[in-house]
Design a protein that fits this description.
49% helix, alpha/beta, 10 helices, 269 residues, single chain, eight-stranded mixed β-sheet, Rossmann fold
């Protein structure tokens, strides 16, 4: 199905508080599949989308590169939020966290809360930042096929043949231009934490910073410091690295549900 023009997976009661989840770089809505039923069981309306250019949200092949920029993607998120009735609980994973921040800065009235999920204050660092720069070099040498082969070579996960085939279809089915723009954004994004903190405070929007205890993208210490600077709640998810929704679904859902329930209670007070 589609919501606001983006391909989406939806679970939970239609009258539940809407939780809108944005995936990371080269990801998709399927990255949230392990937690969708857990959020639905908690009474939430869980909506996971493909960002424009990802997987089944194709984007405009003749449109400008700006459609894949943070501002362009934030405009798409605003359309989804409006279709869901506004005042959504926005959850952005990794690159999706940068999109969530752009949405907070541009469309705060549409947000009931924002969760920065394995995302950081500025350009990506850690081992994943180094890997992204290496993949750029591979792309220059051999295009997307070289990047795919390099990604498979460094993937530490044990995957079934069916899972690898899905990842392959998703990777080559996504927009090449979109991936390039998003990758460059990850490498170039500036620190806008102070701006985000000011907007959230002015609009009374609760914030959460959460991540795997062993996150290897933005380091956990960076994310904990960002939480302090944002005036946000902070939670490290055990037994997880950069993809807690997959690596520890129950722990991830527990953190999100507790935060969203607290935000709903504060809003009703």
């Amino acid at each position: 199905m589609t919501v606001g023009g983006l391909a989406a997976l939806v679970a939970g009661p239609a009258d539940g508080a809407a939780v809108l989840m944005l995936p990371g770089f080269t990801g998709s809505k399927e990255d949230f599949v392990p937690i969708l039923p857990l959020l639905a069981t908690a009474g939430l309306r869980a909506v996971a989308v493909d960002l424009r250019g990802q997987h089944e949200s194709k984007g405009d092949p003749d449109g400008p590169d700006s459609q894949f920029s943070l501002d362009g993607l934030a405009s798409d998120v605003a359309l989804v939020a409006k279709e869901l009735g506004g005042q959504v609980h926005l959850v952005g994973h990794s690159f999706g966290g940068l999109v969530a921040r752009a949405t907070l800065l541009e469309r705060p009235a549409l947000l009931a809360s924002v969760t920065f999920f394995g995302s950081g204050p500025a350009a990506i660092g850690g081992p994943r930042g180094l890997a992204l720069r290496a993949l750029y070099a591979l792309y220059a040498q051999g295009g997307l096929k070289a990047v795919w082969d390099g990604t498979r070579a460094i993937d530490p996960a044990v995957r079934s043949a069916e899972e690898v085939e899905f990842l392959r279809r998703r990777f080559f089915g996504s927009s090449e231009r979109g991936m390039l723009v998003m990758a460059q954004t990850l490498l170039d994004e500036t620190d806008r934490v102070a701006e985000a903190a000011a907007v959230a405070a002015a609009h009374g929007i609760p914030l959460l910073v959460t991540h795997g205890v062993d996150d290897d993208a933005w380091l956990p210490t960076q994310q904990a410091d960002m939480a302090v600077r944002l005036g946000a709640r902070h939670a490290a998810i055990p037994a997880a690295m950069h993809s807690p929704a997959v690596q520890n679904p129950t722990g991830t859902a527990d953190v999100l549900v507790a935060f969203i329930r607290a935000a709903e209670t504060e809003a009703a007070a």
